[in-house]
Specification:
It comes from Cyanistes caeruleus. GO terms for molecular function: iron ion binding; L-ascorbic acid binding; procollagen-proline 4-dioxygenase activity. The protein is α+β, with helices and mostly antiparallel strands. It has 2 domains: 141 residues, Serine Threonine Protein Phosphatase 5, Tetratricopeptide repeat (Alpha Horseshoe), CATH 1.25.40; 231 residues, q2cbj1_9rhob like domain (Jelly Rolls), CATH 2.60.120. Helix content is 24%, strand content 19%. The protein contains 8 helices and 18 strands. The protein is elongated. The chain binds 2-oxoglutaric acid and fe (ii) ion. The site of fe (ii) ion has 3 residues, from loops. Fe (ii) ion (FE2) binds next to loops.
């Protein structure tokens, strides 16, 4: 097997790879299974071995090796930057050079060295003094002379078991926003609650199975601003349940913070309103704190269930059963993207500022409702804020009685 001693220097990423992760994951590159030797990347001691063109590998260093998508994304960025070169400056944080640099590296990693070379040359046209890219150009040329990368195999779209519903997800997220949603009915609800007598909830039924309802004008602009302001200083990268633990995951990209009802009268009032509208008991430990979530550009939450699907889930630490229902409040509008998509039920709800979306996660017999698989679509422009309130089974025994009928 030919061994290359070159090192191609990756453009620096905004989040540097932590040192303790370097070289820890992969075997030496030449041992990597599944990499045709002709396309073997030069020895990159710091880089985990990515199966070329196969998308996400089991890496854990933050690198997913998804060059299929990084190339598509960066191609778009490069062509937009080329069109408007010099005329705009994204807060000084991005440039044509950045995009070219990363795109060249992605092509190199995907085995397409001639593309990597021509993009790096274009880079040098704008920034001729860059030593790293100049060295890379020399190495790409050498690799091409040696006959490496002559025929890069087409990149495969990454496919992991978690993404089986990927096609439906992408299609739902790309549906134009203006489409009529074919909702079922509208009503003013008081639920015999004194809180709602003067100001009934404006309920719109979205689906019966799974049961999904949208409450318009559920909060005011002022309340939304207060909640975002309270959460702002506490926002941290969101985590997901993974086995018995909670951890960061590439399929959930957002920041979030938890707000207790004692944080502010607005949070307490919101709890009371949710209790009145849903008729459910939210007193501790029957509901979780309010989770405020902020998605930036490209932020998303890929298809998932809110309820636990394993008895080991950290959700059960509350000892109040599974998450029987979700109520999610849209705290902001979004310029483009960001709908909430129900994958199996085949509909998506566009973000409507101040509205709340309610659904039952469990069926009346306590089983998870498989039809509730849902996702937060990628934010394409602007940013998105939501607040989640997850209500648990315990405490609801008389409010949502069980049923022996498996269809309920
Ligand atoms: O952001 C959305 O639209 C969905 C969020 C969601 O499903 C969640 O946070 O569990
Ligand atoms: Fe969710």
């Amino acid at each position: 097997t030919p061994r290359f001693t070159f090192t191609i220097f990756q453009p620096s990423l905004s989040t540097p790879v932590p040192q303790e992760h370097l070289g820890r994951h992969g075997k030496p590159v030449e041992d990597s299974p599944g990499i045709p030797s002709r396309l073997l990347p030069p020895s990159l001691s710091w880089l985990p071995s990515c199966p070329l063109g196969r998308g996400s590998g089991p890496l854990g260093s933050g690198s997913t090796c998804d060059y299929y998508h990084s190339i598509a994304w960066l191609e778009e960025a490069v062509s937009l930057f080329r069109l408007s070169y010099g005329s705009w400056n994204l807060e000084d944080r991005s440039s044509l050079e950045d995009a070219l640099d990363h795109l060249a590296f992605s092509y190199f990693m995907a085995g397409n060295i001639s593309h990597a070379l021509s993009l790096s040359r274009e880079f040098l046209h704008y920034d001729p003094s860059n030593q790293r890219v100049s060295r890379n150009v020399a190495k790409y040329k050498k690799l091409l002379e040696m006959g490496t990368g002559a025929s890069a195999s087409p990149l495969q779209r990454p496919n992991s078991t978690r993404l089986q519903s990927r096609d439906a997800y992408e299609e739902l997220c790309q549906r134009p926003r203006g489409q009529p949603l074919l909702y079922l009915s509208c009503s003013y609800e008081t639920n015999s609650s004194p809180h709602l007598l003067l100001q009934p909830a404006k309920k719109e039924m979205v689906r019966i199975q799974p049961y999904v309802a949208l409450y318009h004008d559920f909060i005011t602009d002022a309340e939304a601003e207060t909640i975002k302001g309270l959460a702002g200083p506490w926002l941290q990268r969101s985590v997901v349940a993974s086995g018995e633990k909670q951890q960061k995951a590439e399929y959930r990209i957002s920041k979030s913070a938890w707000l207790k009802d004692t944080a502010d009268p607005v949070v307490r009032a919101l709890d009371r309103r949710i209790a009145a509208v849903t008729g459910l008991d939210l007193r501790p430990p029957y509901a979780e704190y309010l989770q405020v979530v902020n998605y930036g550009l490209g932020g998303h939450y890929e298809p998932h269930f809110d309820h636990a699907t394993s008895t080991k889930s950290p959700l059960y630490r509350m000892k109040s059963g599974n998450r029987i229902a979700t109520i999610m409040i849209y705290l902001s509008a979004v310029e483009a993207g960001g709908s909430t998509a129900f994958i199996y039920a085949n509909f998506s709800v566009p973000v409507e500022k101040n509205a709340a979306l309610f659904w039952w996660n469990l069926r009346r017999n306590g089983n998870g409702d498989g039809d509730t698989l849902h996702a937060g679509c990628p934010v394409l422009a602007g940013d998105k804020w939501v607040a989640n309130k997850w209500i648990h089974e315990h405490g609801q025994e008389f409010r949502r009685p069980c049923s022996a009928d498996p269809r309920d």
